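quick one, 291 residues, struct below
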Amino acid sequence: MNMQIDKKRKYYDFIRSYLLIITGTGLMAFAIKSTFDPSGLVTGGFTGIGIMLRRLTSGLVKGGIPIWLTNIVLNLPLFLAALRLKGGRFIGRTFLASMLLSFWLGIIPDIDMAGGDYLLASVYGGVLTGAGIGLILTAQVATGGTDLIATLLHMKFRSYSIAQLLQVIDGAIIIAGIYVCGIRASLYAVFAVYITTRVSDLITEGGKFAKAVYIISDHYKQIADAVMNEMDRGTTRLPAVGMYRNEERNMLFCVVSKKELVTLKEYIKNIDAHAFVIVTDAREVFGEGFM
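---
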């Protein structure tokens, strides 16, 4: 029985991951073809290089070199290098995601959804791209490109993180976009990158943020009772030692929603006005009472 459940779960995860990849790459391609490319917003990556090459070659080739072709030509040597250095398991579904992105870029028609409005293009394109990247990352896949370059370079430059190398590479592409598409478009491209990052983080980390609260008080029992009985939330007592006086103290730890935080602080204030309270963000919470 358990084996059948495991097989069904694996089958579901398999279908789900590929649907996420297909949908995510489609959203990314649609954002590029409908906003970034028509407006000249170079947001980094191989697609950013493709946007620049298309504009630079528009006088040589009708319509310029297609972005999908640039994406394939630049990615193939990288995947061959990754295959040699990292092995086939490392490439995995990333190759598929890269090819799917090129496929969508090839079949989606050129549509200027923003109508030359840089602000609309950066917001609309940033949201769509962020949603697409978020879905792809949820499937634990990348789309190759500059991500793959940064990963391979990290093998030689160990003192720099992959994120730092990626920032340098994408930053250089955005700067190059200034000379091809102009400073105004490049500034809006930076804004689009910010929106993309925020939206992708929202999807991968979940939108239901909570607050983690640490409470140090001599009246911890009364506060714990209020949290459990009045707010219907769980709380945990953690033993602690105050190093200034070397005294044993009791610290409470609990997780509440943003709305409940105001109520919790009122309870703490009424029970012990001198309590020491630390509030931090909990980006994602699983368990009873939460997701």
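DSSP finds ten helices and four strands in the chain.
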